[in-house]
Amino acid sequence: MSIVLLSILSMLSAFMQYVRNDYQPLDNQYAVFKGEHTGAADERGVRTNADLSMVAAFMGEDSMALKTLAFAVHTHKAVRKRPCLDGRYWGSVSAKDHQWESSLWAMSVAYSAYFQWQRLPDSLKTDIYHLLKAECNYELERDIPTGYIGDTKAEENGWEVDVLAATLGLFPDDPLASQWFQRMRAFAVNSYSHPTDALDTTVIDPDYDATRVCDLYKGPNLYPDWTLQNHDFFHTSYQNVVIQELGEAALALRLFQGKRQRWTSRALLHNCDKVTENVLNWLTLPDGEQAMPNGNDWSLFLYDQVTSYATMACMQRNADALYFERQCLKRIAQRQQTTDDGSFLLRPDVGARRMGVQAHRLLMTEMMHRLWPTEGMSPTRWTDFERRYHGSKLFPCQQIVRTLTPRCFACFSFSKGKKSYTGYLAPIHDDMTDNLVIPYRQYNTGNIIGYYQPTTGKPNARLVGEPTIDIKGDYFIVKATLAENDSSIVRRFTLRSRADGLEYSDNVKMKTADRLKDYTGLLAISTDEFTGRNHQVDFQPGLTRIDNQLTVQSDSRVNAQWTKETIENSIRSKRLAPYVAGKPQTRHHIIYRID
Fold first, then answer.
1. Could you tell me the superkingdom of the organism this chain comes from (predicted)?
2. Which range of residues forms the domain containing residue 406?
């Protein structure tokens, strides 16, 4: 057995302590896994139960797996043998009666059923068929959505592919199978759908029919520069998760059908390589983490792209992905070691649901390596990867610029959706045992430029005009003007990337006299059990040194002290300073230098 398989199985084995503690029997026939809304007919109940049931089945916990699967199946709208604990049923059965994300949960139900299929009573197998058939027939009735501004449908279309693939895999001879197959391909093409697909005459599956990419294309879910937005902003978790979803669909077809592969399609990895090459690789760090220029809206340092890496490594034989997958697995294991019950992270944002999602990803990664072994492949070396992706790159549709040098990664973003202006800086070194710098936003500004706290009112900032973002060789220069604190402040700033970090300077003009707490040059530092609770922080006039890896150097007028709080809000606070109305002053010149 390969090192990758042994590593994942070890993590899942340790995680079973958490799973057993989370298990809640209901009666002789049913049980659920507890969560934010235990046993309820929503994401907080169904998704948690389905994912953990799948993990229990995979790990051979027969009783837990069977009873939680029975609860998931019998509470579906197509079966209705008992209600959820909130008195409702879950799932999608028609265009008039559907539920957001239910196909994603149904896919986990299908995997749970597959892992224990030989032990299931015939009556439960029939109920599973009715559940999956209803979810797939809903996909035949509905429109395939597109749209890339603010709220892409890429991720949602990806999980529709999953339930169609899983159902085809379990029931390949169904009379409706050919219709499900056609719909699966259409959803797959319209997951990472790009404007160029409209003219792509590539025949997708020449051994099956003459359908071309352009025949299935409905509209773009990606911007022209291959980026996407979800929840009104860009971040790499949403950017990469479609690869995971399409990979899990391909896995279901291969795994569930066994040796007789009636249904298979090249559409299932549509544009995954182009998104990787044009976006994700430019934002990937040596530990496998992918930088989030605008922050994230869930727990940090999940390394949740591990299954996307596995998809590219196993199915596309991508050596870069193989390297980063191994890095992610190391870090997930290290984070699991900070807990005493096998859970994958302390203080998760959504409790058992986050645990289930993380275990789900590891399980899928393990299965991909079983079906598409990578023992004959050699992973990329970081130095070779850095040589190919060094220097600066602009993502014009997102107003994000980044640079990579042998010493650091840095980026800056002007997010239109969130109307936020944030930077990100991370050291580059061999083992990446501590990812010190994280995306952090207070109000609507964040790392690097910071904010002002007025004595009255609320801090805020808005962009005046358009920023200028110039690429100068390997480096970038950003210039912008912000009106802040209800337009009582005008700040003109310049941010330059350097071989060893970032250099920030500004000119501030007050329209009204006030006394402000000055948090300019804010920099959030990770301080928790995973990244390290104790970082040595020394302050000297004009110099702040952190753990001998990150140096903040500013002019002597900026009097700073550091306070270490939680992972999301460890901030640098400054003295209360008077600002004179109408008098322009060059207030700050700060160098963030990686030693």
1. Bacteria
2. 390-594
